[in-house]
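call fold(seq) -> tokens
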Amino acid sequence: MIISAVILENIIEFIGRFHPVLVHLPIGVLLLAALFQWLSRKEKYQSLSSAVSIALFWGMISAILSCISGYLLSNSGDYDADLISNHQWFGIAVASISILAYGLNRRNKDNIWVSGLMVLLIIITGHLGGSITHGSDYLVQAFSTEGNDAITAKRAPIPDINQALAYNDVIRPILTAKCYKCHGPDKQKGKLRLDMPDLILKGGKGGLVLVGGKVDDSELIKRILLAKDNEDHMPPIEQPQLTKSELELLHWWVSSGADFNKKVNALVQTDKIKPVLLALQSEEVKEELKISDVPAESVDIADQGSFKKIQERGIALTAVAQNSNYLAANFVAVETLTEKDLQLLNPIAKQLIWLKLGDSQLNDKMLARISDLSSLTRLSLERTAISDFGIVQLKNLDKLQYLNLIGTKVSVKGLEQLKGLNELKQIFLFQTLVQPSEVDQLKKLFPKAKIDLGGYKLQFLEGDTTELKDPKLK
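ret:
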């Protein structure tokens, strides 16, 4: 009976999959043979010499079988070719030297240098095998802060989620932590790589895995949603699973078109996804408070009824530090800001020390509602409609240390009205009416503060390349 090519391929792959089982035999048996050989050189352990030949024989056989099964497994195309090649040749070297060691032993010509080289080759081959299975950095992963499960706690915080790139800043870290181990540069199960946009779009052995705008047709999402006990569920049940937030972010990105270049603010954001996106910058609170330290004195817990009303409005409230009652508020998920929204903060004025209102409909009239929040140490008002007329209403915030006015119509004249804020340490004024020539004047008004006008330029190096175009051509 003629066996079809497909069945033969499946049989070969089946045999190859015994490699992870077989490969541990030569490692253990040959290392034991070398140990017995070295010990038997001493009179006290000469009785072990009879076991050396047996150990070398079975170690040699298992090394040869491991090479054969490893070669068959490598043909599946699930692994990086360069890593496989190095591991393969060192594996062949181990099998070859085990044959030599066994032959010398049979002739009673044990050579300590041959067994020493065999041990060294086993170590190198084992390390290369571990790199294929667990990644090239598997030995130092225990000391690394990357690749952990909770993306909001372990990934770098995103200062402004709306200005972040949806794929590069939001989606790619999820794929890195949960998918690269099996579908990255070192290993490609099912011939699928998820570490580069063009390779994601290419798909794998089973075809396309991503269809922009069509979640139900995207195999990437379908596999994740399968029951954990389903053999097609991804990631494999023995690997770290996606969190609810990670799944929601992937679902949102795919349903929004799976664009690799657009920013978050260019994609449709539902009420459900907004707080999930906002959570990606929650760590920013802790980082920025290195500048504006949490007050040393304790404060009572905020009124829970007021707390609930604020959250129901879509305003994100988070504790600025573990076991602290001080709070940070972010209005990024509030589509239409009103004075009533700001009034909601009054009951938690003692606890609120950090407030982010950037990219909102905030205007000069609304600033009056902020003047009562006397505990504020940080205030972000970037890209709002405030001007010199309203900025004066912040003069009573005497604990303020950080003030972001980027993209507003504030000038030096307006800032002069805040000269009594002696605790200011950072003032961001990029794209305002403040001119570079006026920085010295501001430094006299705020001697403790760093005045940041932005507008940074990259240094041009000799090694940089430039593209020259004829100005006549359009």
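Residues 282-452 form a domain with the Leucine-rich repeat, LRR (right-handed beta-alpha superhelix) fold (CATH 3.80.10.10).
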